[in-house]
Fold each of these.
Amino acid sequence: MVAKRIIPCLDVKDGQTVKGIRFQGLRSVGDAVELGAKYAADGADELVYLDISASQEGRRTFTALVSAISARIDIPFTVGGGIGSLADAARLLEAGADKVSVNSAALRDPSLIDAIASHFGSQFVVVAIDAKTVDGRWMATTHGGSRPTDRELFEWAKEAQERGAGEILFTSMDHDGTKKGYPCETFARLCDSLSIPVIASGGAGSAEDIAAVLTDGKADAALAASIFHYGETTIRQLKDDLASRGIPVRILPQYGNA
């Protein structure tokens, strides 16, 4: 059975990992390279770094940071934020990222997915979808859930897959930051409709929440930030808990399990 992945997410501004609520009230929670190295040593399967800088100078700083991360960390990592062209993706992949994540730019121009997948391969492309319920339908949004679009979650994810996406990262904006669990029925429906992996995001408050989305929700991986950044649990503790529930996870050998 394929192991489920645990993926810490690090929002980055000016080289520092920051945390807030929908990018408001940001405060530093540590150096982006050092925190990533800590999570890798603790058993993270992958990392996601999101550049939330608004300026071109911030983008250049992030590119240099990606090179530093690549030199230090030996697990796969995905980068996203502000990727609007093939050239943007190429710059970050050439700096050492293993995958790029596209969101708003792909909604504006879906051919961006085709371009990156054709040039680099589907395994390099993650399409992030931030969706919320509107009149009973899950609709994709941009700008932290504040701007609606006319794209429905399931049809947009299917199109992204057909255009060459290698993974879908779905964040429920209705649940993000609530720490009250994921919409598992929605995740299960999404996973059943696709042949590529789905990463679950939005709502993680406990190991039980993550276990639920990896089983009932059928997600291939769970993304989380606050519970790791603020020491509510460690990746080692989380994986031990998941393993005790019979969920297949990769446990580092030095922790006594193969």
Note: The radius of gyration is 17 Å.
Amino acid sequence: MIRILIVDDQILLRESLKSIIECDNEIDVIGCAENGFEALRMCDELLPDLVLMDIKMPLCDGVEGTKLIKARHNTIKVLILTTFDDDENVTRALKNGADGYILKDVTPEELILIIKNAVKGFYILSNKTYGTVAKRLDEDRTVHKDFQPDKLGDKSERGMVLKDAELKILRLIAEGKSNREIASVVYLSEGRVKNIISEMFTKLKLRDRYQLISYAYKNNLIE
């Protein structure tokens, strides 16, 4: 059973999310909080698997709440619930350790699938705002202070580092697709896709998908 904590200052939205999520018999909403401080206290007491965190709340918003929870409970997944035009706060939340974000216009079916994938360890990034968020992460080097793609040489050299198959997978990652979805597009096994992505990390001296997308935008490998 997946244990969920919902954090939102609007009781109507909390109860609506609770009703939607508990329609799935594999997920249990173990509590609701109305700000980041209360969410931290409930995480200490209940140890949920995942926190569904609204980003704009009084007293302690989702950005700070994520930071507090991740500092004390690094294994708890935190998903930011946000609107289309709030990529600045989303970027700050990701810097604070959030495991991804979703827009409030997702369908109930999508929400359930997203929660399950997040608990499995997938980064959750909305296709609609992924490019903007990736660019913001690239602009703020405090996300990973040791990220120095310039060491790889000029742009023509960097582009030639990746094979055509790797570039195709990179572009699919930029669209926010999971390894399974990528595998179905490129007709490879999910395990092989995972290995190719790991090889790209090693080749480019990067650490995660955020850095990979940032590298791609910086070097004009994707639009």
Note: Residues 190-204 form the longest helix (15 residues).
Amino acid sequence: MSTEEALPNIDFEHFSKLDLRVATVTACEAHPNADKLLKVTLDDGTPEGRQVCAGVKAWYEPESLVGRQVVIVANLEPRKLRGEISQGMILAASDLKAEPPADAEGRPGPDERDVVVVTIEKPVAAGSRVS
């Protein structure tokens, strides 16, 4: 169970500005200039698709994401992450591991998290809105 406190409430107008969409992972590889990032190519229902950089390398092998449908924030301002453009964000949930790994002397290590990419239960068209 997560012990993180909830963020302050936002009004519906702010929430409605988020463009959450379903996208299908068509390709995925390790980011060439970052240890924690994957470079993910997505079919988002547009002719050109998009690329995002996702900080899930510690939890996912790139090939394990190919073919999955994920939820993205489609209207997040693009930005360059270590030389690669990221045109959105893949949603993921995180929680503290039940038993954080121990260090070399057997003491509990730092808070370690399990991270799970938000996926779709059954196939829908790429670009479908999430509400």
Note: Helices lie at 12-15, 62-65.
Amino acid sequence: MAWLNRSRRVWVPVLGCLVLAGCYTAWGVQGLVLGLAGVVMWALLHFTRMTHVLKQATGRPIGHVGSAVMLNAKLRPGFNLLKVVALTRALGELLTPEGSDPEHYRWTDAGGSHVTCVFQGGRLVHWSLVRPAD
């Protein structure tokens, strides 16, 4: 799975260049401009989504989630950190030193339940739900 994350860093720019080359060979300079506009639009859509998710997370305390049980039910392996932040609408509490791999984040609800997520290479590998004893 780690090789897939590393290869995305290579294949996305390569695919963008192939699209530009294909547009240029099919329609010349006008095609190149059209392909470049498409690539820029894709990048702007990605950036807009990222800023929207982070804007939602700014008003919430770090590591807080409405319901840890519901978060646990919605998580799937392979989610990236941005997707999990979009689900929780809050940044997670970082439990490992910054820059380490794998990264451990925790989200806690008002009842004391918490979900600890492990991200390796930027992707969710596994998570655990802990509920306090009544």
Note: The chain has three helices and four strands.
